[in-house]
């Protein structure tokens, strides 16, 4: 899915509660593994300033090495289109899906 990333939460979402949970991201060199959702995730930078976010179910037993681990507080505001916030060490990252028609990229 195509997404935008910001370091601030837009006003419409700053007052919403959303669903918040704690997880850990395990960085593998191929992306990151979300322990709570049990998904392998990767983000690709696009030439138009947007990003493409990939996520798929994955088993953690497959990884031979993990290079870094981060505790994350994730707040999901909307599942479709997906809108969420990640708080990592006091730093906020806001993600918002760009709704597209047609086939979506996958990995």
How would you portray this structure in words?
The protein is mostly beta strands and 107 residues long. The model has no long low-confidence stretch (mean pLDDT 90). The chain has one domain. An eight-stranded antiparallel barrel has the order 1-5-4-3-2-6-7-8. It has one helix at residues 11-14; strands spanning 2-6, 19-27, 32-34, 39-45, 51-57, 68-79, 82-88, 91-97. It is built from one helix and eight strands. Strand 7 (82-88) and strand 8 form a beta hairpin.
User: Structural class of the helices, strands and pairings?
Assistant: mainly beta
Uncertain stretches: none
Strand order in the largest sheet: 1-5-4-3-2-6-7-8
Give the C-alpha Rg.
14 Å
The helix tally amounts to 1
Largest sheet: 8 strands, antiparallel, barrel
User: Judging from the principal axes of the Cα atoms, what is the shape?
Assistant: globular
Extended strand count: 8
Order of helices and strands: EHEEEEEEE
Strand content: over 45%
Whole-number average pLDDT? 90
Q: Into which percent range does the helicity of residues fall?
A: under 10%
Distance between the termini: 11 Å
Quickly count the domains: 1
């Amino acid at each position: 899915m195509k997404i935008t990333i910001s370091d601030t939460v837009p006003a419409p979402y700053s007052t919403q509660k959303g669903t918040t949970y704690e997880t850990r991201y395990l960085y593998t060199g191929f992306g990151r593994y979300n322990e709570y959702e049990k998904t392998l995730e990767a983000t690709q930078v696009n030439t138009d300033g947007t990003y493409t976010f990939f996520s798929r179910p994955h088993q953690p037993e497959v990884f031979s090495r993990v290079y870094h681990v981060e505790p994350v507080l994730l707040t999901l505001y909307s599942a479709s289109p997906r809108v969420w916030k990640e708080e990592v060490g006091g730093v906020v990252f806001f993600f918002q899906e760009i709704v597209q028609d047609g086939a979506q990229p996958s990995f």
